[in-house]
Design brief:
Number of domains: 1
Number of strands: 0
Order of helices and strands: HHHHHHH
InterPro entries: DnaA_C (IPR013159), Trp_repressor/repl_initiator (IPR010921)
Largest sheet: none
Low-confidence stretches: 1-9, 13-21
CATH topology: Chromosomal Replication Initiator Protein Dnaa, Chain: A
Helix content: over 70%
Pfam families: Bac_DnaA_C (PF08299)
CATH superfamily: DnaA protein, C-terminal DNA-binding domain
Protein name: Chromosomal replication initiator DnaA C-terminal domain-containing protein
Shape: globular
Oligomer: single chain
GO molecular function: ATP binding; sequence-specific DNA binding
Number of helices: 7
Length: 123
């Protein structure tokens, strides 16, 4: 990816383009919820943005080796306690909200498909 594509983005978003393990998670959640990475990093407390942050936090923590602080940097510099709260919210919402559960399952299946494609391309 050329530097011109992400020249205007702040550091966490540049890292998202260069980190091949983080980028599919953020991109998949943003695509399904119809939000941008800039909106996720904003201070907005809209429901769809908080759900997107919750999903990204959970899947990044589960599927990558990123620390809580690094995950928080993606969301505009939030600290580790916010990321812990979002991961706990994921567990609560998954257990109680059918719409959230179907969305999380859809993201999980897309990420699994990407992993399969990635492993097939290596062979």
């Amino acid at each position: 990816m050329t530097p011109l594509i992400y020249a205007g983005l702040e550091r966490p978003f540049r890292m998202a383009f260069t980190n091949r393990y983080q980028d599919p998670i953020v991109y998949t959640v943003c695509e399904l919820l119809n939000v941008t990475q800039e909106e996720i990093a904003s201070k907005s407390r809209l429901r769809k943005l908080s759900v997107a942050r919750c999903l990204i936090s959970y899947f990044l923590r589960r599927n990558t080796s990123m620390s809580l602080l690094e995950i928080g940097q993606i969301f505009g510099g939030r600290d580790h306690s916010t990321v812990i709260y979002q991961i706990n919210q994921y567990k609560d919402l998954y257990a109680t909200d059918k719409h959230f559960r179907s969305l999380a399952d859809k993201i999980q299946s897309r990420l699994a498909n990407l992993d399969q494609k990635r492993s097939k391309s290596r062979v």
